[in-house]
Amino acid sequence: MSAEVSRTRRVGRPPRLTLDAIVDAAERLLAAEGVDKMSMRRLATELSSTPMALYHHVRDKDALLVRVLESQARAMPRPELPDEPRERLVAASVLLYELLAERPWIVEVLTGDDLIGPSALWIVEVMVGAAADCGLDEEEAFFAYRTIWFYIVGDLIIRVTGARRRARTETVHQDEVVAGLTVETHPRLASLADRWSELNGRDTHRQALEAIIHGLLLPRS
């Protein structure tokens, strides 16, 4: 940043803050830098403002994150889903995975399990409803949704953190460990060692979700 631009930002009336501007700036920061680096102070700097000015619009960081989640949820598509309940559950689950995969910072926010944008609950309603229409009772249908949700979040968190680690270093510790295994101690893993990285990198979320849902819907003995 040039000294001239810096001086320009410090003089005159500061730009008028609006809640929409704060939410938009927070979305940009979250997408670029992730949740851990997004603070009210960092956001204030981005907006050429002060943290105190932000607190006139939002109570705290959590309240801001809820606003951002709600903004994202409202912008996400709501496609037509299949009528058949099993197919509908699979389609909704795949849709949820893929929407979050496009916005990995949202997954980081949601791992706290207590922040959510109300407008996102439509897909939860669809998933629980589809599970119930498959013959599960109310509690079983909710359990099915939660099991699918845990898979989605776990898979995406592993992919996001793994990608960041690989961006920092060319060495993948897990690959090195597996490559050093012997057939005497780990025959199955050693046989897969030369394909370990490729197998780990495969995008199998649809296949995995279909398998999970198939198991969840099996008749209980």
Spell out the blueprint of helices and strands.
Elements: H1 3-10, H2 19-33, H3 40-46, H4 51-54, H5 61-75, H6 85-101, H7 104-110, H8 121-133, H9 138-168, H10 173-179, H11 187-192, H12 196-201, H13 205-216
Helix pairs in contact: 2-5, 6-8, 6-9, 6-13, 7-9, 8-9, 9-13
DNA-binding region: 39-58
Keywords: DNA-binding, Transcription, Transcription regulation
Protein name: TetR/AcrR family transcriptional regulator
CATH class of the largest domain: Mainly Alpha
- The rounded Rg comes to 22 Å
- The total number of structural domains is 2
Structural class: mainly alpha
What sort of overall outline do the alpha carbons produce when their principal axes are compared? flat
Fraction of helical residues:
55-70%
Could you give a short account of the major beta sheet? none
CATH architecture of the largest domain: Orthogonal Bundle
Mean pLDDT: 87
First and last CA, distance: 68 Å
- How many individual helices? 13
Order of helices and strands: HHHHHHHHHHHHH
CATH fold name of the largest domain: Tetracycline Repressor, domain 2
Strand tally: 0
CATH superfamily of the largest domain, called what? Tetracycline Repressor, domain 2
User: How large is the share of residues in beta strands?
Assistant: under 5%
Q: Which spans of ≥5 residues are poorly predicted at pLDDT below 50? A: 1-9
Keywords: DNA-binding, Transcription, Transcription regulation
Pfam family, one: TetR_C_1
Protein name: TetR/AcrR family transcriptional regulator
